[in-house]
Specification:
It contains 11 helices and 13 strands. By secondary structure, it is α+β, with helices and mostly antiparallel strands. The structure holds flavin-adenine dinucleotide.
């Protein structure tokens, strides 16, 4: 890849790259198939957290019963990814590298403060998810680098979480989606809230204004109403062919409301 000076592209599941080739959006001079790299296919679960190899497929995540305990928010999000056939081929690394602002895994990565391990000609490095996504289909990857792994911090068993998204049809990219979690403090109030949104900006984003509402509060109707309003106020999406900006602003509030209700139930 390095020898091709930015003109080479790795191929993972092909579920985004092949359509891009078909539409001539991508015209690489070389395609490098990663499928024979078995070491990129591992799911590692340890006390320190969960690591998914870049070639782990959506189906592998849904089939691994350990992940439902080790990272239930991740599994809840992946259940919304695309359709059966695409989940059989699409991969973790392909989704991160493709960086669709409405994709679930980038949203979970940013919300959970995951770290993305990459490898290139000048060696290995690790990039914080918050620094990895630079805009629609844009990342911090250099042309000769591939993603090798994504690492999630450990997930405490008592943690409360919710994942909600709205798409016109099951499996379509979300018009808007929310991933959130919080831990409980000794007085029964929420602490350590992490709230992320997809489909409402040029990349997945955290919603610190919503996190401030949730932290230190009991998750009741009053808190949920405040969080909903804070979410709508925090984003400023434009209009596109799928939805108007005002609609998305309203929708993100509803997603926060539903995710908090589900987390606290
Ligand atoms: C109809 C349809 C609906 C979909 N709906 C959703 C959805 O709801 N949610 C969602 O998240 N996704 C959705 N997808 C996308 C799907 O999840 C893809 O699997 C994913 O975006 C790309 O993964 P892939 O393995 O197929 O990557 P590929 O298509 O093989 O590659 C995508 C890009 O990533 C690069 N790449 C791949 N692997 C690496 C790596 N290890 N390191 C560096 N670069 C790499 C490629 O060069 C290419 O630029 C949908 C796709 C389709 C066709």
């Amino acid at each position: 890849m390095a020898a091709h000076h930015g003109e080479a592209k790795p191929l993972a599941g092909g579920q985004s790259l092949v359509p891009m080739l078909a539409f001539r959006v991508a015209t690489p001079s070389l395609i490098v198939d990663l499928r024979k790299l078995d070491e990129l296919r591992q799911i590692k679960i340890a006390a320190g957290g969960v690591a998914l190899g870049a070639m782990v497929r959506w189906r592998d995540i849904l089939d691994d019963a350990r992940l439902r305990i080790a990272h239930p928010l991740l599994v809840a999000a992946v259940e919304h990814v695309a359709h059966y056939q695409i989940r059989n081929r699409g991969t973790v690394g392909g989704s991160l590298a493709h960086a669709d602002p409405a994709a679930e895994l980038p949203g979970i990565a940013v919300t959970c403060e995951a770290r993305i391990a990459v490898l290139g000609k000048s060696g290995a490095r690790v990039i914080e998810a918050a620094d990895f996504f630079r805009g629609p289909l844009m990342t911090a990857l250099k042309p000769d680098e591939i993603i090798t792994e994504i690492r999630f911090p450990a997930w405490p068993q008592a943690r409360r979480f919710g994942f909600e998204e709205f798409a016109r049809r099951q499996g379509d990219f979300a018009l808007a989606g929310v991933a959130l979690f919080y831990d409980g403090d000794s007085g029964g109030k929420a602490a350590n809230a992490h709230v992320g949104a997809i489909g409402v900006a040029d990349r997945p984003v955290r919603l610190p204004a919503v996190e401030r509402v949730v932290n230190g509060s009991t998750i009741d109707a009053v808190t949920i109403a405040k969080a909903e309003a804070a979410a709508s106020a925090a984003i400023d999406p434009g209009d596109d062919i799928h939805a108007g900006g005002a609609y998305r602003k309203a929708l993100i509030g509803v997603m926060v409301e539903r995710a908090l209700k589900s987390a606290s139930a």
